[in-house]
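To whoever is on call:

I kicked off a structure prediction for a single chain this morning and the downstream step that reads the tokens threw a length-mismatch warning. I double-checked the sequence; it's 124 residues and nothing unusual in it as far as I can see. Pasting both halves so you can look.
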Amino acid sequence: EVQLVESGGGSVQAGGSLRLSCVYSGLTSGDTALAWFRQAPGKEREGVAAIYSRSDSPSYGDAAAGRFTISQDNAKKTVYLQMNRLQPEDSAMYYCAADFRGGSLLVPGGYQYWGQGTQVTVSS
């Protein structure tokens, strides 16, 4: 059984930072993409960042805009999203996704497994 468990969300003031973590288990593919998406109320889910499990070449969506960094620790089976200079428009539920099946890395439809999400709220 594949499980993705996100943590690290919370409430911060504009300009602050958060680091999200996603611990995964049960993945059988040796090299799959892991990604972070976010979804605000009334908006579509959008890709934030993605990385292949055996690569350190990340992909970023427009939302990352040079403020976010995706990284991974394969020994801990954990993928991180460091978010700096947060703004109120970054407020959303952030989801971890895994087991990329094709298409664009930053499009939700390409992923088979999803976590439950962790809420990020940024106040002005």
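Update from on-call: the warning came from a stale cache, not from the record. Cleared it. Sanity check on the structure: The chain has a mean pLDDT of 93.
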